[in-house]
Amino acid sequence: MYNDLKGKNVLVTGGTKGIGKAISLGFAVEGARVISISRHTPEDTDDRITYYNCDVSSSNDVKSTIENILSKFNTIDILVNNAGIEEYASLDKTDEGMWDRIMDINVKGVYNVSKYCIQEMIKNHGGNIINISSVQANIITKNAAAYVTSKHAIIGLTKSIALDYAPEIRCNAVLPATIDTPLVRKAAILEVGNNEEKIKEKIREWGLQHPLGRIGKPEEVANTVLFLASNQSSFITGASIMVDGGLSIKAPISTPDE
Fold first, then answer.
1. Can you tell me the distance from the alpha carbon of 28 to that of 42, in angstroms, rounded to the nearest whole number?
2. What is the pLDDT of residue 187?
3. CATH number, domain at 46?
4. Are residues 76 and 188 in the same domain?
5. Alpha-carbon distance 240 to 226, whole Å?
6. Which residues contact 244 (CB under 8 A, 6 or more apart)?
7. Are 203 and 181 in contact (CB under 8 A)?
8. Same domain, yes or no, for 227 and 124?
9. Which of 27, 130, 143, 162 is in Cβ range 3.0-4.6 Å of 238 for a Cys bridge?
10. Region of 126 on the Ramachandran plot (φ > 0 left; ψ -120 to 50 alpha; else beta)
11. Mean of the per-residue pLDDT values for the chain?
């Protein structure tokens, strides 16, 4: 679909499962050379993807990993900052450890990887960065103070990169709503316990909150990322693209005829 992605070197953080895995596979299908970095060993590997173990919250780990990547691939053309974690608590119940874990992965991770990739992109006359934020950078749920804050921060960082490095580097954010990933399943277990039928019902219930009547698929987020990485989106930068099944346009209060 996107011929200009063929042969590009694409770095995806958190690329071993969920949305990150779908993004990695999507680029591989387009003929890109895909590099996945993650703290987690992939459950199943793909010959088209090169995997590195890396903690994105560690500046030293990121620096050495990117140096290793560049020694093999020479350049990084496209970066997708996808790695993220989510924990639930209101602010007064959020201890410092939880706050730091979420900020270190979700925000500092984007900073660390972007910093070293941008340096290489500038040397090679340009690049493209896509940051995975969340619909919760726009509308939020209760008891997720640290996560919500981190996803808002990613929008600010996206805009700063887009402005500071234009026109050589484009940078955009993708804001998914509820997507069928291990994180969503974990959230359902926290609410209803480890009962498969109750988990399915909770996820179905969440899906019905979206005007499209279901939760999203990781591939639907990946499709948006591929578009933003391609020349088809060549006049888009600093944008936040919703992939939310209409969730962010729905009023929270039903009208009398509903």
1. 16
2. 85
3. 3.40.50.720
4. no
5. 15
6. 135, 175, 176, 177, 210, 216
7. no
8. yes
9. 162
10. left
11. 95
Query: Domain range holding 146?
Result: 3-177+217-245
Strand partners, 171: 129
* Residue 118 contacts residue 164 (beta carbons within 8 Å): no
Nearest residue to 179 via CA among 12, 10, 23, 5? 23
> Which 3-state string (H, E, C) describes 34-85?
EEEEECCCCCCCCCCEEEEECCCCCHHHHHHHHHHHHHHHCCCCEEEECCCC
Between CA 52 and CA 117 the distance in angstroms is 15
Encode pLDDT of 171-187 as tens digits.
999 999 999 998 888 88
> Given this model, what pLDDT does residue 1 score?
85
Q: What is the pTM of this model?
A: 0.94
pLDDT in tens, 137-167: 999 999 999 999 999 999 999 999 999 999 9
* Same domain? 144 vs 191: no
Please give the pLDDT value at position 255. Answer: 55
